[in-house]
Amino acid sequence: MTEANDPGAREPGAGPERLALYHHDPAATRRRGLSGLLGVVILAAGFGGVAGFFGGQLVGLLVAAVVGLPLLYVVLYNVRRRLWLEGTVLLVRTWRVRRIDLAAAQRIDLLVTDVRGNRTVGLLINAGERRKTVKIDLAVYAGTGGRELGVLQLRRLANALLNNTDANGLVFAELLVAQLKSEARGDGAADRPLYRLASAAPAGKLAQRFTMEAVNRFVATLD
């Protein structure tokens, strides 16, 4: 059942179908939120306790607030974050809903992040306007396995990027199509393009942005 205020809700005949670009697991979301809140409380209490020891109770409370409030904002921001695709338009919900036209994006980058052994391959979309940058996670790998966007999501994303000439969207569309072909052939995760990109990123770096030239060279080697 879809809530009435859910941006993913769609009335019949209301326009292009809104397709979720996130893995919705309420239990995992709650665990992630509670874990984040616990971390915020521990850090804020730790810094506040040290400051309070030297400067008194008021100073301790102020330091705890300065440390804790920004971290709390980040935790709540990530818990609320949702992505949908509507035709070529990306809908991003955090505190409000933003709309980014993928076909008109001015810059697209391939980004690989490495956090506690989990490597995430994503597209960083820049629409050229203030606060109009968003990351679309395509796959998350740990070891030789992981989680990837579904076939329908990858196909719709490829279609949305296909006509973007300003940001070389065709190259990224070809990458997603190659991923779909690899999955259709029954290739294991280690043989799929997105996994190979995740593995190519240097170890020990939190985030690695691939240049357009590197992405072009990689796509040129794909079937």
Topology order in helix (H) and strand (E) letters: EHHEEEEEEEHHHEH
Shape, principal axes of CA atoms: elongated
Distance from first to last alpha carbon: 41 Å
Report the major sheet. 5 strands, antiparallel
Radius of gyration: 20 Å
Could you list the spans in which at least 5 consecutive residues all have pLDDT below 50?
1-13
* Oligomeric state of this protein: single chain
DSSP helical segment count = 6
Residues in helix, %: 40-55%
Mean pLDDT: 82
Give the domain tally: 2
Biggest sheet: strands side by side, in what order? 8-7-6-5-9
Strand content: 15-25%
Summarize the SSE layout with pairings.
Elements: E1 18-20, H1 26-55, H2 57-80, E2 82-86, E3 89-93, E4 97-101, E5 107-115, E6 118-126, E7 133-142, E8 145-148, H3 151-161, H4 169-184, H5 193-200, E9 207-210, H6 212-220
Antiparallel strand pairs: 1-2, 2-3, 3-4, 5-6, 5-9, 6-7, 7-8
Helix pairs in contact: 1-2, 3-4
